[in-house]
């Protein structure tokens, strides 16, 4: 391996370590609840499917594009929920890639009528890779860029196991939970040295408030308050906000940051973004769109962040109403 390639690879992998010091984040975190915590596995009526796409800072070269796919199912006879979670994240030209597949299990305990607690575990497999063929090397720039490199540009990847856990307490109106990902702090280095994935802690919860009127409304109306605090390595952030739901429509406003209590350096406060959310439901299909307006010093340069989520809940139509009366679904829609 040439000295030039060694330096380039070291720089690239160093960038990868910084990029993945924090896991991919989603503004509509409750649209993908099992990504927040494995304790949400099986909190739907029966089976639930979810997809999410996020394009963060599209105006900046090397922006992140993240994908998430999830399935979970409630097994009534076993008081258990199972789930499958797939996450893919790529940066820039796609040279840096992160792909994770995880199996989830949660056990539901009824403390008293309509009051539940759910401990859960998650076991995953991760592929972390860099594709050097998608990079432009110095010799290509020197010769105009549109020529093959003389560097030996193969791919590099590492695979490792990943463990997480979570717990969730909920009632028909309130939920509060905590989760910890990367409990085993796996080594993600692409240079055969030590670069561990820091543990990620999440504290999340919310409250659903019904809007009552003098006249019985055809469609129930609620205001949902929710938050999600995340800490990973030396970074932490708080998503907090609310949305109004009147089926089939949803609209909300979210803030991300800890502006008063946290600053990473003088003049650099922990203020990230303000997000606007719109959503609607068509029968069992749920669609959400959010846009993050950057509030930090990068404001006006990032292009914000676009996020689209799809959710589909599958239940036996003949038994759906009876199931809905029995099941307490704790989390918000978005």
Number of domains: 1
State the name of the first-level CATH class.
Mainly Beta
Number of strands: 15
Low-confidence stretches: 1-20
- Rg from alpha-carbon coordinates: 22 Å
Helix content: under 10%
The biggest beta sheet, please?
14 strands, antiparallel, barrel
Shape: globular
Strand order across the largest sheet: 1-2-3-4-6-7-8-9-10-11-12-13-14-15
CATH topology-level name = Porin
DSSP summary: helix tally: 4
Quick one: CATH superfamily? monomeric porin ompg
Mean pLDDT reading: 82
**Helix/strand/pairing category:** mainly beta
The CATH architecture designation is Beta Barrel
Output the helix-strand order.
HHEEEEEEHEEEEEEEEEH
Strand content: over 45%
CA-to-CA gap between the ends? 49 Å
Structure description:
- The chain has 334 residues and is mainly β.
- It has a single domain, classed as Beta Barrel (Porin).
- Helix content is 10%, strand content 53%.
- It contains 4 helices and 15 strands.
- It has helices at 3-19, 33-36, 138-142, 320-326; strands spanning 47-56, 64-75, 80-91, 96-107, 109-112, 115-131, 155-170, 174-181, 200-210, 221-232, 235-246, 249-265, 268-282, 285-294, 305-314.
- A 14-stranded antiparallel barrel has the order 1-2-3-4-6-7-8-9-10-11-12-13-14-15.
- Mean pLDDT is 82; it is low at 1-20.
């Amino acid at each position: 391996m040439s000295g030039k390639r060694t330096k380039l690879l070291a720089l690239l992998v160093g960038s990868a370590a910084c990029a993945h010091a924090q896991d991919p984040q989603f503004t509509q975190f409750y649209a993908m609840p099992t990504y927040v915590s494995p304790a949400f596995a099986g909190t739907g009526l029966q089976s639930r499917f979810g997809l999410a796409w996020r394009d963060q800072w599209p105006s900046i070269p090397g922006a992140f594009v993240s994908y998430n796919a999830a399935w979970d199912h409630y097994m009534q006879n076993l008081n258990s929920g199972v789930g499958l979670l797939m996450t893919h994240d790529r940066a820039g030209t796609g040279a840096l890639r992160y792909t994770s597949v995880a199996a989830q299990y949660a056990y539901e305990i009824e403390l008293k009528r309509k009051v539940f607690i759910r401990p859960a575990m998650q076991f995953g497999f991760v592929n972390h890779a860099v594709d050097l063929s998608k990079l432009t090397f110095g010799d290509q720039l020197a010769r105009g860029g549109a020529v093959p490199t003389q560097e030996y540009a193969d791919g590099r990847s590492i695979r490792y196991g990943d463990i997480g856990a979570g717990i969730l307490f909920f009632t028909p109106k309130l939920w509060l939970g905590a989760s910890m990902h990367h409990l085993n702090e796996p080594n993600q280095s692409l240079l055969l040295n030590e670069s561990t994935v820091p543990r990620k802690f999440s504290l999340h919860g919310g409250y659903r408030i019904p809007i009552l009127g003098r006249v019985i409304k055809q469609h129930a109306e609620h205001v949902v308050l929710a938050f999600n605090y995340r800490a990973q390595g030396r970074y932490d952030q708080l998503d907090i906000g609310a949305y109004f739901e009147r089926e089939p429509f949803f609209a909300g406003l979210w803030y991300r940051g800890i502006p008063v209590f946290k600053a990473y350096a003088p003049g650099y406060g922990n203020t990230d973004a303000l997000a606007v959310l719109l959503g609607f439901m068509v029968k069992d299909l749920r669609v959400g769109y959010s846009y993050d307006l950057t509030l930090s010093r990068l404001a006006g340069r990032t292009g914000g962040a676009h996020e689209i989520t799809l959710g589909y809940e599958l239940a036996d139509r003949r038994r759906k109403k009876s199931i809905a009366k029995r099941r307490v679904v704790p989390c918000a829609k978005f």
